[in-house]
Amino acid sequence: MATYTFNLPDIGEGIAEAEIVAWHVKVGDRIEEDGRIADMMTDKATVEMESPVSGVIRKVAGAEGDVIAIGSMLVEIETEGEDAPAIGSAPEPEPEVIEAETPKAPPVEVPVLAPAPVQAPAAPKAASAPTAVEADASAKVLASPVVRQRARDLGIDLAKVRPAEGNRIRHADLDAYLNYGGTRAGPGRPADEEIRVIGMRKRIAQNMAESKRHIPHFTYVEEIDVTKMEEMRAEMNESRGNRPKLTALPILIAAICKTLRDYPMLNARYDDEANVVTRFGAVHLGIATQTDAGLMVPVLRGAESLSVWDMASEIARLADAARSGKAKSEELSGSTLTLTSLGPLGGIATTPVINRPEVAIIGPNKIVERPVVVNGAIGIAKMMNLSISCDHRVVDGYDAASFVQALKRRIETPIYIFAD
């Protein structure tokens, strides 16, 4: 027998450590080559660690929620043959480990709230046997033996699974198929449970607490008549051809980008330690997106230079990547201003929390038809309330109100959204 030490590899430029958000093995488990070891989170992105060898798990580094350094031991695997050298070098001090011979209990398994892949319950093998045609199609798909066996156990036809990268199907692709393309198991009987706050939910909690602790928020709300904008959007969709269908969001973003030219103090970041405000020329707009794991903010880069059609395509792509847990780290960082919307849930008004270190966040609410008075007569208009929260250390109330009034004029006369 030999011992193979698998150290946490470099999983991103400039990343020094990562959080364990899910273990797929425990001490004493048998793991095959390409088998899933753990899911590690760094900078909001979750990376799946797979075993380069087959063997038995003898040590694991910490419990879910623990943070370990790049190069540190993640697991030790007992293999057949001579001792294999560890990959990388573990820094001092070494992380606390759980060994097979120790009397300590192994880490408690808890529900995972991060956008890491979720192990679905295995379906009975008898019910999952593929037909001859399915087996032939699946055989042509690139996948490791471990992935193929898991697909058979779950009754998944590999020919129907789309790999996220390249043409080789991995465990994460099976998870994505189960969660978004296949059938979920029904919910069990409700019961009390304690859930450790880890992964994405932990990051959200920390970021929101830091934002409210450091930033003196104020919120301004205005109502906007979007009747003409909605009429224009309907006309654009009728003649869109092969282009994506427009929602109100890309048109609102175009209006925001055009208005920001005169209000650069809102498209900015505040380094409160160095007392430096950086105003940005480009608008890298964060789009708050609800996922199963919580709120994520993928970034629409260079929004001011995109057409509304390009925005629609990119927003859809980013939202899909965020919700499937496949968004890259660079797609979830670097925003200069954030837009958050509850969509059809709407509400009368919101008081959104600023995405620190930005200095403002904009929250459009749902569009509703309601009676309005126009030139002394009552009519029906499509109205939308719009909220903006600002960092009062950087943005004065007058400037925030002036920005919203300028944005309102542009939206209510939508030709000015596209005219210079």
From TrEMBL:
Report the catalytic activity.
Answer: N(6)-[(R)-dihydrolipoyl]-L-lysyl-[protein] + succinyl-CoA = N(6)-[(R)-S(8)-succinyldihydrolipoyl]-L-lysyl-[protein] + CoA
Gene Ontology cellular component list: cytoplasm
InterPro entries (UniProt xref): 2-oxoA_DH_lipoyl-BS, 2-oxoacid_DH_actylTfrase, 2-oxoacid_DH_E2_comp, Biotin_lipoyl, CAT-like_dom_sf, E3-bd_dom_sf, PSBD, Single_hybrid_motif
Q: Which SUPFAM superfamilies does the annotation name?
A: CoA-dependent acyltransferases (SSF52777), Peripheral subunit-binding domain of 2-oxo acid dehydrogenase complex (SSF47005), Single hybrid motif (SSF51230)
Pathway the protein takes part in: Amino-acid degradation; L-lysine degradation via saccharopine pathway; glutaryl-CoA from L-lysine: step 6/6
The record places domain Peripheral subunit-binding (PSBD) at 142-178
Enzyme class per UniProt: transferase
Q: Which UniProt keywords apply?
A: Acyltransferase, Lipoyl, Transferase
Cofactors that this protein relies on: (R)-lipoate
- Indicate the segments forming the Lipoyl-binding domain, all copies: 3-78
As for what it does, the entry says: E2 component of the 2-oxoglutarate dehydrogenase (OGDH) complex which catalyzes the second step in the conversion of 2-oxoglutarate to succinyl-CoA and CO(2).
Q: What is this protein called?
A: Dihydrolipoamide acetyltransferase component of pyruvate dehydrogenase complex
